[in-house]
Amino acid sequence: MPSLVTPKMNSSRPDPSVTQRIEHTASKISIVETGRMGALGIAPPERTGTGDLMPAIIVGIGRTGLDVLLRFRHLLKDRFGSLEATPHLRFVYIDTDADDASLASQDPCGLASHEIALARLQRPAHYLQREGLPPVELWLPSGMLYQLPKTSGPASGMRPFGRLALCDAYRQIAQRIRQEIEPIMNEATLRQAEKLTGLQLRTNRPRVYIAASLDGGTGSGMFIDLAYLMKHELKNVGYRKPEVHGFLFVPPAAKGISRRAQANTVAALTELHHFNKNPYQFRFDLSEAAVTDSSAPYDRTALMQWPSSQKDPLDGQRRIGAAARSMFLELISPMGKRIDEVRAAAPEERNAGPTVQPFNIFRLTWPRFELLTTITRVFCQQTLRQWATKESTHLKEPIQFWLVDQWTQYRLDSQSIMAQLDEVVVEAMRGPADQSFQSIVSALAVPGAGKVDSTSAVAALDQLIKFVGKPEIESSLSTPMLKGILDQKAAAILSEADTHLSTVAVSFLEMPQYRLAGAEEAIQQMTDRLTEMIQELEAKVQKYSHDATGAYAKLFPVIGSLAGNSFTLAVRRSSITSELLELLEKYPQARYQVLLHGAAVNIYRKLRDSMPEIKRDVSHCREVLLGFVEKFGKDQKRYASENEPGAYALPMGCETIEAAAEQLIANLPPEDILEFDQNVQKIIQKKFRGLAGLSLKPEKAEQFPAMLGEAVRAFLELRLEKADPAEALARYRGFGNECLTVLEKAYDAAKVDIVQGQHQALEATILATPKSESGDRLRQLIHEANPDIEFIPADMPEDIIVYREHPRTPLSDVPQFGETAKQAYTSQLTTDQQPHTRSDIVWTVPLKSVL
Hints:
Strand content: 5-15%
Number of helices: 28
Number of strands: 15
Strand order of the largest sheet: 3-2-1-4-5-8
Oligomer: single chain
Shape: elongated
Helix content: 40-55%
């Protein structure tokens, strides 16, 4: 292949950028050879198929163009789950406003940096000195250059500035365009798209879509030149007849609309009319040949009219959505081929002149994706709220029975606690405490002697006090031996019991049907049970303490009487000895019971004191769960399909997807919900070590919403019916008057709102339905009800679409050329802020066409 290089240009005197008539013949197409062409290669041979896919480059200019791009990308993501599934669709966004450009990458379906071209305006000196830029004074309206702001910025509603920015950024923008052409020339890209989407190829010939608003400065100033630039670059790589379709937004022709906006629109449409009848030529760079083209800039021009009022803020968004949906239908669906066939078959009208194709669309769908997403979010929120609920009335009785069993299993009843405490004393004293006390008392009396002296009695009492201590009313610096033994054992019992009770509470968190309400009810019942045990034991402690104190008080007079008068002592020795021995036996026994029951009381008190902390942990867990509820609420969004003209086929009584989602959830069998809760608990246990683990490890908790969402979506995916919208509509509305009313509303809502004059009668109406028995019956129903309307059938597997287009509307007949707009335009011509993009052409506003 011969080397392809850029022809040398004579730069000593630049050619004026003027429009000239260029003669092209059918047999010879002029292709400008550039250095880039050699790098890209030549377009592959044309290949067609029976599928729905075709490559395309979607270009958005200005904020309106960006909105269309983002909405279209949302449709792709909703349909295929990822934008990576459509590598055959390429995107270019051009703007003069840096603030709007920064938004392009912030959207969830935002653009990559290589898809964005920022063409900011510079100071006047820049355009007079920049190397390679043809002289702007040859085409820029006189005096406009010096109206540029002192700092770089957007076009700010000035059409000549929008075009100036394009010319200045030509190299950057052309490079962006070439970078997006390259992938769609690669057959591997198309094969990958077929694989990822599951759809087949319709053609490998690319189409260009340009979206812009004609009432501002950037899009309105660039839309003509950019269309020719796109065609030029595609021709350079061998696409002989590149298609460019425009989605051009215009303000309504009505009073109250900005005069500049109306003037800009008239000027833009005038230029569009001119180049539909006259060839185009412009030189963007002195190092390259001029871009020349004798064809119209757009093969199809879809005019979209902004709403006449701002009563509903979504009206404007729905116009954006209609444009994005139309692109989607043409590029991704079987309806695209039918739309092209209908448009090509529309008869041309004599003397109509250049035409535009205003359209409108209404989409009726069974929103399975939207429903599945919404019901997933709602079900996640309901599940989390149910887990976090405080309502526990229905749980009281089952928890009470369950707690009794757990109390016994963990030996938390008072008898078991007392037995454990007594066991350690028996082990330490090598026998029951009573036996040890008895042995000390028995040693006082010498066998057969029948007498006890005071010294021996005091010694025995001291021994007993070392074991059990003095009554509480007596101060003591030392700790009784048995108290130390009991306290040590009580600490061990407390630690184990505290773990058991925490386990009991936490176990309810992990139990479906109980969760946080069950945990809090269990905590409350445990607190009440502990309080009852404390009160019961404290009563016994008080009784034993009273007995011990009384015995201790009597001991000293009795022991003192042993040292009295010998005659008296001799007379009373027998009775005193008997009383002494009885008191010495009674005191340590009562005192031991005080220590024993007191140790148990301390265990239960500390357990009860720990209940608020466990409850706080549960409350924290509730805060975490409710935080997830809030997160799911923040994730709520308007679906791309809601921001376009259309409606959903929903169950009777449901006006919104949220209402339908709640109704579907309410109809889920309780046993299915319980099974889901049990299954998701296994996942929680495995990934987070239980629901309680979410509170303990916040870093892991961040993964919980995604996990729950996936589990819920999988659960609901199996239960949400798969039905095409025709079946859904028939199920909810039947095939009678209610169904017909829905279809007639769809037809009326799809009416084209740009009112045409005498050519309004030429209209094509496509009714696309699923290829099914229900779809056929819907077609038949609407045909029978509207015999005067020819509904062109089309297959659409996932939607019912009413598409209405006026395929041969004379451009001169659009209301934007009406008197109100022309007056605004004429008044703008007398100012120094000219509405036209170039002064090297004499622009003539077209007259109304006449048959």
